[in-house]
């Protein structure tokens, strides 16, 4: 029998047990963008803002799922689809692209569509007040006229830049892995959960 009630207290407790330095903020949203559960050091007003942002980004991304899926070559499962039940194959294809990861000016955001239609959002925001977008000119290499002065500063800057880039990539990979782990757990725990869509606003 499908569940008809979402125990947000239990979900909030689980989210709080899995937040940390890598993912300090986790949100669970309804299909309409309503904040259902959260764990974060951020104030409630900021969480509502982040929930609205995540929902807006997801609605922008959602219409492109079919076109993105069609752009990929067929998988082994699709080639041998005659060996797979048609309904399960449809479900797998429907959730093939269920996650987007976005790099913001002050951190990372991952949005995952759970099988029960809820949205799980993971955030790694470096500060309370978001910084303005960084222009490309701010991260370009120094003018060529400063090179060749024998100081070796350019080489040091290049090495530091590469080290910082590697560190950022490592942080993104760790963030993505932990976010995926929590998302899979939520899918398992909420398996069979059905949303009540009587007024269509949940």
UniProtKB/TrEMBL annotation:
Record Gene3D superfamilies: Dynein light chain 2a, cytoplasmic (3.30.450.30)
Highest taxon of the lineage: Eukaryota
Disordered as annotated region, ranges: 132-158
Stretches with biased composition (Polar residues): 137-148
Protein name: Roadblock/LAMTOR2 domain-containing protein
Organism for this UniProt entry: Golovinomyces cichoracearum
């Amino acid at each position: 029998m499908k569940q008809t009630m979402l125990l947000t207290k239990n979900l909030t407790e689980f989210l709080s047990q899995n937040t940390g330095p890598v993912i300090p903020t986790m949100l669970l949203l309804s299909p309409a963008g309503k904040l259902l559960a959260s764990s974060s050091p951020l104030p409630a007003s900021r969480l509502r803002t982040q929930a609205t942002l995540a929902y807006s980004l997801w609605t922008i991304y959602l219409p492109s799922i079919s076109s993105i899926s069609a752009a990929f070559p067929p998988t082994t499962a699709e080639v041998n689809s005659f060996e797979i039940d048609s309904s399960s194959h449809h479900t797998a294809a429907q959730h093939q692209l269920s996650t987007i990861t976005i790099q913001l000016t002050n951190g990372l955001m991952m949005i995952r569509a759970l099988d029960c239609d809820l949205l799980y959002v993971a955030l790694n925001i470096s500060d309370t007040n978001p910084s303005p977008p960084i222009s490309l000119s701010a991260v370009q290499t120094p003018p060529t006229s400063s090179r060749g002065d024998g100081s070796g500063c350019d080489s040091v800057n290049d090495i530091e830049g590469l080290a910082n880039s590697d560190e950022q990539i490592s942080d993104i990979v760790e963030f993505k892995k932990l976010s995926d782990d929590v998302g899979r757990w939520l899918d398992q725990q909420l398996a069979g959960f059905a949303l009540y869509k009587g007024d269509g606003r949940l």
